Amino acid sequence: MKKRHHHQQDKRAASAASPADDSVEARLLDSRTVGKAALLGLTARKIVEGSMAGLNKSPLSGFAIEFRQHREYTPGDELKHVDWKLYGKTDRFYIKQYEQETNFDCSLLLDASESMAYGKGSQNKLEYGRVLASVFSYLVLSERNRLTLQFFDREVEDTLPPTSNPGSLHNLCELLVAREPTRQTAIGDILRKLADRLRTRGICIIISDFFDDTDAVVKGLRRLSFQGQEVIVFHVMHPDELEFPFDGTVEFDGFEVADIQTLQPRRIRESYLKTITAFRKDIQKACEQNDITYTLVDTSKSPEEIISGFLTTRMHYTGR
């Protein structure tokens, strides 16, 4: 699916205010930016604490896990640890065992291309991505693991040097709220370049709508996983993109292509939904085939619900 996804013109909204002075210093020191950064940091902490309610251990103890070996199944072992692929080949039950890494490097990538500007308020895709990025920054830094935050559109933009200092969270939040959506994207190429750059094993969290050529995205994800990274994908989509609820005659304005079309949505709804569903399932299938954790993020749902579901599933997976 090429990035030819069109959106209703009056829905376009960038969620963070931009200061009149475009200099980096002015943007980072602008009172609105600083205020939003403080709120974003508080939101991240609140979401993490709320999501952890009822969970007994830190979500980062063994957050990065590495396969060590198989052993034969013995009565009493939990079935969730059975390697079913190996069972299919050998007709025997084996348990997968993992090592937990005490510290790790985390690369957090946030898509800041134009299509992420879609939606208003808290349902704006980039705004939602900012919240997710701040939550994971808080999680990673709270246990002094090393974090690198990067934005991308057609290129990867480095932000701050890698840090493990929890005090860096506010600076990271300032960068998150100051970053505006720009240009088209080339996600497949970005992932390929990133895989070549990452030399140490670690976690790579990608927050994006993945609107690009599907084959290129799949190849990029596969290569990143092959390089030994534990890849976690948050596939961010607005409910309009998932449900296409438009009626009447609507003017659609493409974000990353100079293309405005006046259409009657009811005539294309069925084919659109079929295409978008196939696109989403192709990304999910590629993740499952390459041991990549996939989470669909519907921006109409609260970040607390998304994060809580992710952490609970992850803790069950690691057997903690």
Descriptive report:
The protein is an alpha/beta fold and 320 residues long. Helices cover 41% and strands 20% of the residues. The protein is built from ten helices and eleven strands. The chain has helices at 24-29, 31-51, 84-90, 125-142, 169-178, 187-197, 214-226, 239-243, 265-289, 303-318, and strands at residues 6-8, 65-72, 94-100, 105-111, 146-152, 156-158, 203-208, 230-237, 250-254, 260-263, 293-298. The strands form three sheets. Strands 6-5-4-7-8-11 form a six-stranded mixed beta sheet, sandwiched between helices. Helix 7 (214-226) links the parallel strand 7 and strand 8. Helix 2 packs across helix 5 and helix 4 (125-142) runs antiparallel to helix 5 (169-178). The two termini are 38 Å apart.
Secondary-structure element order, as H and E?
EHHEHEEHEEHHEHEHEEHEH
CA-to-CA gap between the ends? 38 Å
Question: Structural class from helices and strands?
Answer: alpha/beta
What strand order characterises the main sheet? 6-5-4-7-8-11
The main β sheet shows up as: 6 strands, mixed
Helix content: 40-55%
Strand runs, count: 11
Q: Strand portion, in percent?
A: 15-25%
Overall average residue pLDDT: 81
**Are there runs of 5+ residues with pLDDT below 50, and where?**
1-21
Radius of gyration: 20 Å
Taken from the alpha-carbon principal axes, the silhouette is globular
| Count of alpha/pi helices | 10
SSE layout and pairing:
Layout: E1 6-8, H1 24-29, H2 31-51, E2 65-72, H3 84-90, E3 94-100, E4 105-111, H4 125-142, E5 146-152, E6 156-158, H5 169-178, H6 187-197, E7 203-208, H7 214-226, E8 230-237, H8 239-243, E9 250-254, E10 260-263, H9 265-289, E11 293-298, H10 303-318
Parallel strand pairs: 4-5, 4-7, 7-8, 8-11
Antiparallel strand pairs: 1-9, 2-3, 5-6, 9-10
